[in-house]
Design a protein that fits this description.
Blueprint (H helix, E strand, L loop, with lengths): L3 H30 L10 H14 L8 H29 L9 H30 L15 H4 L2 H31 L6 H7 L7 H22 L10 H11 L32 H9 L5 H5 L1 H4 L6 H14 L1 H5 L8 H4 L3 H6 L5 H5 L6 H15 L6 H11 L31 E4 L2 H5 L1 H16 L4 E3 L9 H5 L3 H17 L4 E4 L2 H10 L8 E4 H10 L9 E7 L13 H10 E5 L29 H11 L4 E4 L2 H14 L5 E4 H7 L2
Parallel strand pairs: 1-2, 1-3, 3-4, 5-6, 5-7, 7-8
Length: about 675
């Protein structure tokens, strides 16, 4: 197809593109390697297979926005197939052959290419209309969100326009080139759309058809050569980096499990992240994978209630900063500005509830929540700059083993008259009940503890509690950035748990479940930890617990973030409620897309950041919309937050009860 001179010119352009593209991609690699830590390659073959499936099927994309996800699939699958199409077009340009021949394989190849070409054009047109004509609010930001100067000046729209028109013209001219070829060579039943378009060129001469076929070939492939050096700077880079993200994403025992800091390593001078290069390598990979779709923003309880936090803006700001300083960063230069100077505001930093919604919903595997946690570590451990209300909780956990700062000797006051055995009184226990700080000290949560004690005794469970030997698990300290306090609490608790030979632990708090089960292993504590809803469900299934009546009430279950998203427990509490009630209903946001109560991430111990609405009120309103008469919870923090929201509603407020309280009513 190409003349000798054309072949030479194209080869020269390819070499120039490879040279320029190599340096552009290599700089990306150097920037990412500036991040802290190293990725692990354990089970790399299995991870590679899962990453390929996620990348090829777009599995994470389908969680939300079904219409946009469909159009995105049309574009994505088309572009994936175009890796083969572009290779085939180059082969046909250099050699007088028909790529993959005229047999079944060749016919199937051309049919798929024809269908997907049209799919890409339709899908890309949809996205351009959505952004530039319909002005979809999902693609915008609140006025109080911190954004890079270039974003404020239209950088995102400019990039979207460049990428959009590149895709339209690349695929469009390749498609037109096929139509010119068909007009010259005759109808091709295996390229139905291109054949239909070819009828438009019925009056053109053969030389004209050959010329336009050549021109289309050059435009389609020339656009790729021109675009490649820009590719790593654009949002289109997610096409490749999403797959990389799926492959190297850290393998964690639970969604939000944090890596510990080695405080005994005297070479460590920086705790947490002050500057961009203090983030982990994953934190520097994420902005390259970001598609800038704002799905994380839509799921963020802080953002949807008007706070200054947008997980999407965090990744976008990081990306624009890197693009502006890519040569210095790749060359090893020190960052001159802090993350709080360009990535997000201090208010946004402390508005995060660590609910994990941004991590769960991201279609490319990004983890903005972890950036925030690393930044909090810097603020607490290096700067001693954090919300003043947290000081009371920190001092309480440090001095008395609970964030209420109440006496450690009062930890068992809730159990007076209930004959609750301690490990000293019952050293041969089968199950250790980790009561937790809230059920021990908070009057409302104490009802949960008493109800669960009733259930355990009714089922004849051989259990014990640590009593005054129990201390705070440290979840709030860790999520607030006080990693050293968490280290002290975790070390102490693991020593106690190992001493009493705890093997199976039950907790009524998802934060305790997560911390003991997913994070204490790094400190030498390897335990089987169950949430009380799981244990109750198990007791019912085994016939050890027999509720004597069904409750005539409509219940909606609120999924606690650290029970559901962080640890994947959705069915057990629902199975229990279905067994003892006549009707259960779901809120709009449920299971893995549940909305946070607002207490996680140490928010329980501080005033909520300024916004349009409190998070717990927003969640409570969703419960009201279901028509239920009772909200069931499985977390003492959720119990407090939704009870407070119910009180604000007045006499018409819904009842809020822990699942243990509801079960105890049926005994």
């Amino acid at each position: 197809m190409l003349t000798p001179i054309e072949k030479f010119i194209f080869a020269a352009l390819v070499l120039a593109t490879i040279y320029n593209g190599y340096w552009a991609f290599y700089k990306v690699y150097l920037v990412i390697r500036r991040g802290q830590g190293d990725y692990d390659d354990d089970h790399i073959k299995e991870r590679a297979w899962r990453a390929l499936i996620d990348w090829a099927t777009l599995r994470p994309v389908w969680k939300t926005r079904p219409v946009s996800s469909l159009f995105h699939a049309m574009v994505a699958w088309g572009f994936m197939f175009y890796f083969l199409v572009n290779f085939g077009d180059v082969v046909q340009g250099y050699f007088p052959i028909r790529f993959l021949g005229d047999g079944v394989i060749g016919h199937l190849y051309r049919f798929i290419a024809d269908i997907l070409s049209v799919a890409v054009l339709i899908g890309m047109t949809y996205f351009l209309i959505r952004r530039f004509l319909a002005h979809d609010p999902h693609l915008e930001f609140h006025d109080n969100i911190k954004l890079h100067e270039k974003v404020l000046k239209g950088g995102l729209k400019k990039d979207s326009l460049i990428v959009g028109f590149f895709i339209l013209f690349h695929v469009g001219f390749r498609f037109l080139g096929e139509s010119f070829a068909i007009a010259h060579e005759g109808w091709d039943a295996y390229q139905p759309f291109a054949s239909m378009v070819s009828t438009l060129w019925a009056g053109m001469s053969d030389p004209s058809l050959i010329f336009w076929r050549h021109a289309s070939w050059w435009i389609a492939l020339g656009l790729i050569l021109a675009f490649i050096p820009y590719f790593p700077r654009s949002k289109h880079f997610h096409l490749i980096m999403a797959g990389v993200n799926f492959l190297v994403k850290p393998q964690r025992p639970a969604l939000g499990a944090l890596e510990p800091i080695d405080f005994e390593d005297e070479t460590i001078e920086q705790f947490g992240a002050a500057k961009l290069t203090d983030l982990t390598w994953k934190g520097l990979l994420d902005p390259y994978a970001c598609i800038m779709c704002n799905r994380c923003q839509d799921a963020c309880p802080a953002y949807i209630t008007g706070k200054e936090l947008s997980p999407s803006a965090l990744e976008i700001n990081k990306r624009y900063y890197i693009n502006d300083h890519v040569d210095e960063l790749a060359g090893g230069a020190t960052c001159q500005v802090n993350l709080l100077d360009f990535a997000l505001t201090e208010s946004a930093l402390w508005a995060c509830t660590t609910c994990g919604a941004c991590v769960e919903v991201c279609p490319v595997g990004n983890e903005p929540m972890f950036d925030i946690l690393h930044m909090r570590r810097n603020q607490v451990l290096m700067e001693s700059d954090f919300p003043s209300e947290l000081q009371t909780a920190f001092m309480g956990m440090e001095r008395t083993g609970n964030p209420w700062k109440l006496s450690a000797s009062d930890r068992m006051a809730w159990a007076q008259g209930l004959n609750i055995p301690t490990v000293d009184e019952n050293p041969d226990f089968e199950v250790l009940w980790w009561v937790g700080c809230a059920p021990a000290y908070d009057m409302r949560a104490q009802s949960t503890a008493k109800a669960f004690a009733k259930i355990l005794k009714e089922a004849g469970v051989n259990f014990a509690v640590l009593g005054e030997r129990e201390s705070c698990c440290g979840d709030s300290a860790r999520r607030a950035g006080n990693e050293y306090l968490f280290f002290e609490l975790a070390t102490q608790n693991v020593e106690t748990l190992n001493e009493v030979k705890a093997k199976k632990i039950i907790t009524t708090c998802p934060h305790g479940l997560h911390t003991l089960g997913a994070e204490y292993a790094a400190f030498g504590g390897d335990y089987e930890v169950m949430h009380h809803s799981e244990f109750i469900d198990q007791l019912i299934q085994e016939g050890k617990l027999r509720p004597k009546k069904n409750l005539d009430t409509v219940i909606t279950f609120h999924d606690p973030c650290y029970l559901g998203r962080h640890n994947g427990i959705y069915d057990a509490p629902r199975d229990v409620l279905t067994f003892i009630t006549q009707e259960t209903v779901e809120m709009e946001h449920n299971r893995n897309l549940s909305l946070c109560c607002g207490a996680g991430g140490a928010q329980m111990w501080k005033e909520e950041e300024h916004g349009q609405q409190a998070v717990n009120i927003r969640r409570y309103e969703e419960a009201v919309e279901t028509g239920a008469s009772c909200i069931a919870v499985g977390c003492p923090f959720c119990l407090t937050m939704l009870t407070d929201a119910s009180k604000q509603a007045g006499d018409d407020g819904l009842a809020v009860k822990d699942i243990a309280e509801i079960v105890a009513e049926t005994l």
